[in-house]
């Protein structure tokens, strides 16, 4: 079989040689400079390989969507059942539901052919592309299906040759810290040059390929700009879309599936992309399938074949030229103002069919089944099946194409390049990310340095005596713990990057484990820097063992411990399904590590059946080694002897002993080796053994992490299968996107004036010389420049321009959503817009941002109830308006469906309608802005939306909307045009005219070529404005500034502004001046209700919270089972509080991430629309958390209070009082944790950064609360920190309520041993000392060896840590005050860090 690129080929590919020839003949002028087409042509020719082409044949293709269990929404109550099913596996039958999506599809595509996939949203276009490309997660392909790729089987194609079949989804996911050039170079490196290329070609290819893509997609201006994301500023949305397209095109895959890839691009850019795709398929002999909406005539003509789907059934497949003839034979007629794609898509709209049938046609198909039957019996279908059969016979499974495909491979398997090459390019990318993020690494090191200086000052210059042994032990324990926790934020980083890594895995760019390995290697400098910044200052400031060998031993062990726990965090992140679920095992494991580190619970005190945990605990081995390194072989002199005083001045040395346990009688110093063995069970010969064990654990965690990264796939998405709340009956059609509706949309639109009650006064908006700048690094970039115009009631104005021209920025400026960097004048009926302006207008933004747990109806009701004054819109009338809008926008079939996350739940078209509906139910007063209202909608739905806008304008609204790809007929629905150039300058403002004749006349007079009669005026306009006018040397922007039309417009604008200012026609009611429509109480009540529903419907979040807290409390309670009231028992009791408080580290992270998601929704849409205030947002978040924090405190209390035996410290009524106070204190701790997390989350927008800051602040609270360092030994400089630490009062209250006024019983290992004088009993000898200092003897009648316990009651012990039991209720009250302080600062900080407020006195001048 000949190649499709061969002139002698029998394949029907006449366009191939014309296209390749055109690449060199398109620009033949002598003075022509190289064009993007030239660059792309050279790149395509240099990378083409005619011997490695692929075709595609599929027969009887049927696909179903598979969901695991009910399509009802999971809640807190239903989650345990689902969890039980997951645990039991086969014991409980797991319900699976299979929903047919595609039925019986057939098709054939030869190398170099392009196929246009048409159908309304929900017809199965995305599923078809996913199936062809091998992205079949959540999909079930019928066994009878046959798919073949030029002799390569379906299974082999999507396993061994996965890199040759790519699916480009409608999503723009990239590393935000990489610039555009680095992003495209990485994609180029993943696909090798041909094996015949020289080493120089291999080295220079990525940069050349990236340069070609930058030029072809007009990305040169942003080549060095970071891509960015929703948090980090970067390139625009249109530029990001072009980066995504260029990335896939760089892969040079043989089978390319493009899903809504032109969404968000203007018509000129879309056409250019399709033309580039045409050239690429011709040059490479590849196959391209693209599902597009609102396809232009020129774009349609670029494709070879078209596949038309109607509710998952194939109703046509064949050449695009034959599609129109086929349906005309069936009795349909294409209206004159319809393009062929519009006509074909309209056939799949049940409400449009009757208008397309010929008058004399009697048997026109009406349903998808009838269309499918007509196609099944057609001549075209029979010919297609013959060709498919012949194609499959000609390509056996051992076809030579398999060998040809291997010619451009460097390795076997699904990846195109070797493992070493993958590692090299991933390392290079990781280093680029590290370099662009060097500021974050430095700031982290500085933060660790500050923390080390604080801790070092608390333990500053510890004396080398026996009395500091406990403080040294506490310090070493704390250092190791901090090292272990230092990089716990890597879990968040892992989850932030996972979607990108998963995309590259699907593209077969690299193994996920290779990226994981490169990330680990490139993070080493960051870890070394942070470790040095923390460990060096604290080591020398605290006067730990001063020798080179001791320091380096300490640092090596600390650093290896840091790496080991860091690897555990990565491993846990690789196994988990969500970041919230990751926090649970990490939090519980860290707490268990702390408990069984050997310090809080020495080996001798561990339960025998749980002591094995220390052998899988890195902290145990690290702490033992640093303890041995510090204490082994050292003698610490005693400063305090027992007994001491005037009565014992003549006693010999055997009759006194060091006050430190483990001291030998008669010895006035303590052997460090004996000390750590006696108290903790640490042996001096285990130092280097432990380092080996740590390295082994590091290796094991690393291997598991790499394997999990490679083989554990992300959760299978449910796709756009609709999900409903429990108790709501599902509709019949809930596939990808059910769009059936018995009601006529046009009928609903005609009734709109009866349903949407507009205000009597409908103001207009004027703006003059609007410019907008943004700061990028240290420079300013002008986005829009000196834009002037107006909108008035009754008119629909289109805002158009090339992708990246600043259309959305202008809309944001006019809607007062942008404040910084803005200059110019904006007047609302002659006046500066008031604070109520944002809530009075409607703004359907481009991003479909909605609460994922709410249903469509709930989202609309929430908007309706809060966007209009409560006295004019009651709950009943709000619901009525919602129902009317649902009917108008044909949303009945999914009105009770859950919105879901992007990619699950509602599809893109349904989300677009919901965004528009949210604004319509608010009943905007005069002005409606819409940003891309027709994106991701088919032509018929786009027409319906524009017809609705037309009707709304007739009812008195002034409408301004951006639109990218309008058809010729759609343009006639707009009155005026505001056109922006690619550089942000204004190119035109004025009337469209009938069939855009006024606009066309202006540009033709200005030097543009004539617009042909069959040409789309919008596409023509964007095409001609991309070039300098042929008859003039000035730009289009300059031409507009000097034009007569602009002068006329400016005179009219100034006249209107003067007249409006003079007339002051706006008699604004008092309630319209208020910033928010609803009262504070209404806002608070409705938002608390919605947030509470969100928590109830987020079972993974709530159950993870329970799992974390209960898991830690259970381990603490069981590990300290019936803790004795000995010295070690008292210390364990004190540290058990420390362990309970470690819940705060992970618990606050959970709350911060949850709060951050709600903050994104609030700041992206709801704050700009003035639905509710920022103070209500903060208070509602705190209030909704309160019941769950309370509920969590109950099991934690019981699992800690009773197992540890604290209840035994009192009897009768006092026991009840103490137990009640302990519960109240524990409950207050959980409330404090929630309010503190919200406070930090309010101050810092980035969730990972906020979580890190919260943990650091919390660690400082723990450091200064009196547990780790008693107030008596704190440096006086830090005593104020002890006073203001909230945990100081919590610890004091809980210790007073738990162990105060209880007798102490020392164990034998805790006593101070000495001998009494001859013939004198121990009791007689120690009596003077006991009288002055307290304590008691275990053997008062003994004559020789005396065993003395330094404390008689627990109050003596509590006094050493600054706790007085009489203040326990006072401490509870003070701690509650700190809760209120958190709430106050959360409100205050969010006022400064939240969205910028509009100031009425600010006239938009900078």
TrEMBL record:
PANTHER family: ATP-BINDING CASSETTE TRANSPORTER. Its main location: membrane. It comes from Clathrospora elynae. It is a multi-pass membrane protein. One of its GO terms (molecular function) is ATP hydrolysis activity. Belongs to the ABC transporter superfamily. ABCG family. PDR (TC 3.A.1.205) subfamily. It is found in: Membrane. Keywords: ATP-binding, Membrane, Nucleotide-binding, Transmembrane, Transmembrane helix, Transport. GO terms for cellular component: membrane. This is ATP-binding cassette transporter. Residues 87-336, 765-1008 form the ABC transporter domain. The chain crosses the membrane at residues 438-462, 474-495, 552-571, 583-610, 687-708, 1102-1122, 1134-1155, 1176-1201, 1221-1244, 1256-1279, 1372-1393. It comes from the Eukaryota.
